[in-house]
Amino acid sequence: MSATATAPAPQRPVPAARSAKRAERARGWSLRAPLLPALIFTILVTQLPFLFTIFYSLQSWNLVRPGSRSFTGLANYAAVLTDAQFLGAALNTVVITAACVLISMAVGIGLAMLLDRKFAGRGVVRTLLITPFLIIPVATALLWKTTMFDPVFGLVGFVLTPFGLGDVDWVSQFPVVSVVTALVWQWSPFMMLLVLAGLQSQGGDVIEAGQVDGASKWQMFTNITLPHLRRYIELGVLLGSIYVVNTFDTIYMMTQGGPGTASANLPFYIYQRTFLGFDIGQSAAMGVVVVIGTIAVAMLALRLIFRTFMSDQEANS
Amino acid sequence: MEKENPLPSTKRRPGRLAALGAAGAAVSLVSGCAGAGAVAAGGDGTTLVVAIVSNPQMEDAISLRADFAREHPDVNLRFVTLPENEARAKITTSIAAGGGEFDAVMISNYETRMWAENGWLANLQPHIDATEGYDDEDFLEPIREDLSYQGDMYSVPFYGESSFLAYRKDLFEKAGVEMPENPTWSEVADLAAELDGVEEGVAGICLRGLPGWGEVLAPFNSMLNTFGGRWYDRDWNAQLTSPEFRRTAEFYVDLVREHGQPGAANSGFGDCLTHYSQGNAAMWYDATAMVSTVEDPESSKVVGKSGYAPAPVQKTGYGGWLYTWSLAIPASSQHKDAAWDFLSWMTDKEYIRMVGEEYGWQRVPPGSRVSTFENPEYQEAASAYAEPMREGIENADPKNPGTRPVPYTGIGFLAIPEFQDLGTRVSQQLSAAIAGQISVDEALAQSQQYAQSVGDSYKEAQ
Amino acid sequence: MTATAPAPRSSAAAAPNPRPAAARARRRGGVGGAALTTLTWAIALVFVSPALWLVLTSFKSEAIAQTDPPTLFFQPTLDQIAGVIDSDFLPYLANSLIATLASTALVLLLGTPAAYALSIRPVKRTKDVLFFFISTKMLPVVAVIVPIYVAAAEVAMLDSIWTLVVLYTAMNLPIAVWMMRSFFLEVPSGVVEAARMEGASLPRVLWSVMLPIMAPGVAATALICMIFSWNEFFFAVNLTASQAATVPVFLVGFITSEGLYWAQLAAAATLASLPIVIIGWMAQRQLVRGLSMGAVK
């Protein structure tokens, strides 16, 4: 904090001494002003509705039973925290997010390493590889559900037939694996782009020095490349988690959270409680619980990552 | 929409399509279309937004809308077509929260009376009475009754269905067994054991196991009623762990696990349809609407091989369910008269005749009008199943399901607003039991809790 | 910082580190390099094969789309694509275009000054503000859908494309501010101070001094916003009906209880994705560069 506040000080021209205080205050406002439109807009659109959600969460309110609306205090929260399916959905969210982010990062690093050299058709290969990230996720989910994973006509079954896995009904028998597969396919290109950006900013002299020292390829990778990529990887994990934790379309399209509730994550489960159960009070309470949980996790993660980003900046300034 | 587009002549030209590969072409196409949308919206006519379930019969109606446009050139139709579950969620939200996006919605006999009572739907009776030749007396009585509140209709049926038991006459002959005229479930279970594997890959019976109140619970509930079970006693005490309920659940789960189709826990109506019409099941208990696929040579391998028996019974005289997709006008619609023009077009005798002539009589939306059953052309196309279907619908009595008094109505469902949710949760448990993940007792114990919390809210209200 | 900043940027911008690439090419020689190239191509093709298969399927007839084993060679047909375009696809496309372009423009309009304020001239509690922006991204949108629905119904903004524009702007603003702040940090602050001293107004500074320097960063930010707006599904499916429905919603309409028509679905999916895929392809260099600048700051 103090780091960023003082960072550019050396470059700042010294203002005339007598009007320094007043100028400083005016200056403070002129600095804040550009920030305000975005800040106010964000607060209005994202925070205000959430206040209503908190308000709803204290009510017993079923949308399809008019006249049922009344205050119930914290009863909804008690119901939510003892709902086994809610807790199961929370676990699914963690599993899906963690698996998707880690696997796509691994795949992304691999692809980026392959692309980080000159070869015939490199541009075409990179173009091909980023495509899954650009395709509409709804289409991706339908693609995997039908033409890929269909037990009879699917490509995956066809390819795996020699291994005796030709008749597996992937989406029904392994719903979470299926969802993660589609998500990994979608997110790997994003990770690849980030890591590629990192690799291309790597100074050539370091590598040459390593080569002169006679380090093995693996040693070079773990000792030089990976540390250099650390911040790119952290950024990828952060952005990936932010988006994947809120995954809705893929589950909606592929499994509808099923079979049963086997593959429902929190966004999908709350959606079901809202638009199938129409229990506005209880689904609002779930929303609030999830937000509190997310903030707790995010605090930890963000503070950690912010520390690395901000402190490096401080060190450099 | 199509006729307002200023680019109709270029629309179908392949050269134009080929150009789509280039980004520029895509963008120019879009801007052209934005213009089209603006023209359509800015015209003098009324724009009707119709929310509809994407079943084949409804898709036929959308393709035939040019006929409606001929009669009502000033009305511009916009369709929102969604799969059943999504359509239900969207329509219910819109109506209950007063969203007002739709001028006409497709609902069912589950929603109609509850929503009419809440004042969410326009009363259609004045429109019906003012429309010459619409002939609402022609609707099958149980359906008409189920779509009425205080004597007035609040939605009009597009098609109606009951349930019956389809069976393969050829396989029965091969196994040397016969289908009784009015089978009981015990007899059906014995037959299923007999027929299981009569040919390679043929299951004894096909039954839904997919979660969803409109999926596994439809056949299960109709079975529950005839077994003498019920969801609640008259005082809203949940009865899901009662001996009758347990017996039905065990019977259903055992039957489908032992002699049912593979992957039963994930098969809904559509999957069963494929199983049976591909010749992989000897019997199938499901909606009468199955016939338009089972008897369609283009998609079925068993055309003409099936017999149709009434829904099996156990303790009651009749075991089928009653369901209908119907059209209603939300109370919030600003264009009720135009919306009624559309509703009456889509549910009129004339429409049924048009589908019959355009697409063939096996594809008409059946089970709504007496006149359809009495039409000689329909009788010829549907000779194998028209009669059991009609009997099924006419015998259904949603007011008195089962053998004992209950505080709710409905056969395949409970006509209470919470059932969408409760039914879905209970169906998930039942499906898990069919998959073998949990025991029937565990499924019912959990379900009983869900049901009791709903029942409690009614107890308080009493 | 300011001293070292331009170095990685220019190296990423020009032919990316020619030296190590050349060195490695020298070292590996012909055969090994060719093998690695072949391997890279093979992996890329396998990885992207689902997408290729999707495009292929969109040129099939329904009968060929579902065969066991899958059909690779066939007589292509444009029937499916024509069918999709005939089924009122274009209004959806127009809606997606409006929602994407308008929200992205709005994001840049609101986000650029904010990012500027958070970078060059540090405000008190910079980190808290940034933290706030990013944390709004983590909140599950499903938690606020009911209040938003109710509010939109109150002001007759349901099924309006502008509701989506507002929501997509809010959805993308945090990431945009965050990314653009990193790009602003690249700009040597001396340049800005000089312009300010000469009496240039803030918008002028932003427009004529800053923008040229950070054009690739802005392009990358805009591209990311466009991708997420174009692909957004949750708000679209819950808040629109017919007038404002976007292409992802259009795809859902292709699922029927009768099962799926794969070829038609593939055609719809291909057409729906095409605009953003092409834009992404054309802008991939900016994306790599923009992300690399964003990552290190």
Automatic annotation (TrEMBL), chain A:
Q: State the annotated membrane topology for this chain.
A: Multi-pass membrane protein
> Which domain of life does the protein's organism represent?
Bacteria
Q: Which residues cross the membrane?
A: 35-58, 89-115, 127-144, 176-199, 232-254, 284-306
Q: Which CDD domains match?
A: TM_PBP2
The ABC transmembrane type-1 domain covers: 90-301
Q: Which InterPro entries match?
A: MetI-like, MetI-like_sf
Q: Which SUPFAM superfamilies match?
A: MetI-like
Gene3D superfamilies xref list: MetI-like (1.10.3720.10)
- Pfam families attached here? BPD_transp_1 (PF00528)
Cellular compartments annotated = Cell membrane
The UniProt keyword set, sorted, is: Cell membrane, Membrane, Transmembrane, Transmembrane helix, Transport
Q: Does the keyword Methyltransferase apply?
A: no
Q: Which family does it belong to?
A: Belongs to the binding-protein-dependent transport system permease family.
What name does this protein carry? Answer: Sugar ABC transporter permease
Task: Name its species.
Answer: Streptomonospora halophila
From TrEMBL, chain B:
Q: Which UniProt keywords apply?
A: Signal
Q: Where is the signal peptide?
A: 1-36
Stored InterPro entries: Bact_solute-bd_prot1, SBP
Q: Which SUPFAM superfamilies match?
A: Periplasmic binding protein-like II
Keyword Signal among record annotations:
yes
**Top-level taxon in the UniProt lineage:** Bacteria
CDD domains hit by this protein: PBP2_TMBP_like
Supply the name of the protein.
Answer: Sugar ABC transporter substrate-binding protein
Recorded source organism is Streptomonospora halophila
From TrEMBL, chain C:
- Where are stretches of biased composition, namely Low complexity? 1-23
Report any Pfam family annotated for this entry. Answer: BPD_transp_1
What the entry lists under InterPro entries is as follows: BP-dep_ABC_trans_perm, MetI-like, MetI-like_sf
Keyword vocabulary terms for this entry: Cell membrane, Membrane, Transmembrane, Transmembrane helix, Transport
The record describes its membrane topology as: Multi-pass membrane protein
- Coiled coil spans: none
Q: Where are the transmembrane segments?
A: 34-56, 97-118, 130-149, 161-184, 205-230, 261-283
* Principal subcellular localisation of the protein: membrane
Annotated region (Disordered) at 1-26
The UniProt entry, under Gene3D superfamilies, shows: MetI-like
ABC transmembrane type-1 domain: residues covered:
93-283
Q: Which domain of life is it from?
A: Bacteria
Q: What is the annotated localization of this protein?
A: Cell membrane
Asked if the record carries the keyword Transmembrane helix, the reply is: yes
**What family classification does the UniProt entry report for this protein?**
Belongs to the binding-protein-dependent transport system permease family.
Q: What is this protein called?
A: Carbohydrate ABC transporter permease
Give the species: Streptomonospora halophila
Give the classification, highest ranks: Bacteria, Bacillati, Actinomycetota, Actinomycetes, Streptosporangiales
